[in-house]
Recover the amino acids of this structure.
């Protein structure tokens, strides 16, 4: 029986897989240690790591950077004076990605509310992280819990912004897809009014969408999208003059449960994939 991977784990796997152990990515390691490590009486860095992927990635970093350490089962010690916690952070995206891998969680989709949490054993670290993140209007709040210090978010759009900030691209799209599903079931009886003043804007947008769709089929980029998304794009091609609301209604009739805002998200994803391909 296949075990379901929770969303936090998916985010961490994506971040670990895209971050190569190297001096260039030292900020990732530093963020991880700010979140995960404790100092013993001799000021050695002590970590307990039970997850095999996390252990493998961390050991690869330590080997690449020639950092002296000792490991026994789940216990890892980095000897004192090997890591300077005051090192200047050059890449905030990498640093926060590492911090999330060391001490971050996001509520799973089965929960009715959204929750992102970052933690550290040391208040001075969590205070600095709080200050840096809230400079970008995230609105993190701080609490202490079970001998740890936590900062957290509960707003969907801010959690999505954080996933973008740490460049967890796949996780970001999955998170937004889940929001779309919730919106659909919460608003299935709501019908958006057509704004006739936006006819020209709709026409221009439709032209761009059609060009993008033709490109992904011509360049064999279908693997970037789900079967429902590809079927939706075919419906867009077959109905070039329709508004998003009308297209949504057509798709529902064809077995694709999607709201206007959900379809708009798919088309924004289409824009991103085409832009990435052209660059």
């Amino acid at each position: 029986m296949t075990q379901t991977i929770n969303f936090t784990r998916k985010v961490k796997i994506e971040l670990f897989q895209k971050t190569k152990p190297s001096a260039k990515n030292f900020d990732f390691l530093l963020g991880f240690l700010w979140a995960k490590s404790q100092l013993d009486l001799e000021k050695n860095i002590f970590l307990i790591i039970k997850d095999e992927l996390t252990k493998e990635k961390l050991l690869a970093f330590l080997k690449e950077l020639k950092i002296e350490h000792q490991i026994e089962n789940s216990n890892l010690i980095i000897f004192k004076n090997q890591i300077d916690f005051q090192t200047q952070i050059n890449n905030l995206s990498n640093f926060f990605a590492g911090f999330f891998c060391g001490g971050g969680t996001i509520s799973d989709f089965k929960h009715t509310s959204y929750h992102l949490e970052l933690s550290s054993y040391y208040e001075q670290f969590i205070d600095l992280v709080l200050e840096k993140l809230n400079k970008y209007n995230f609105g993190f709040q701080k609490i202490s819990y079970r001998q740890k210090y936590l900062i957290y978010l509960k707003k969907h759009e801010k959690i999505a912004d954080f996933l973008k900030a740490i460049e967890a691209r796949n996780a970001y799209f999955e998170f937004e897809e889940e929001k779309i599903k919730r919106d659909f079931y919460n608003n299935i009886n709501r019908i958006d009014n057509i704004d006739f003043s936006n006819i020209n804007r709709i026409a221009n947008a439709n032209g761009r969408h059609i060009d993008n769709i033709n490109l992904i089929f011509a360049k064999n980029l279908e693997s970037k999208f789900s079967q429902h998304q590809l079927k939706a794009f075919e419906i867009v091609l077959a109905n070039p003059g329709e508004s998003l609301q009308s297209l949504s209604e057509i798709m529902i009739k064809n077995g694709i449960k999607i709201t206007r805002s959900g379809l708009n998200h798919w088309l924004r994803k289409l824009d991103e994939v085409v832009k990435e391909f052209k660059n």
In short: The chain has a mean pLDDT of 88. The chain has two domains: 7-165, 187-278.
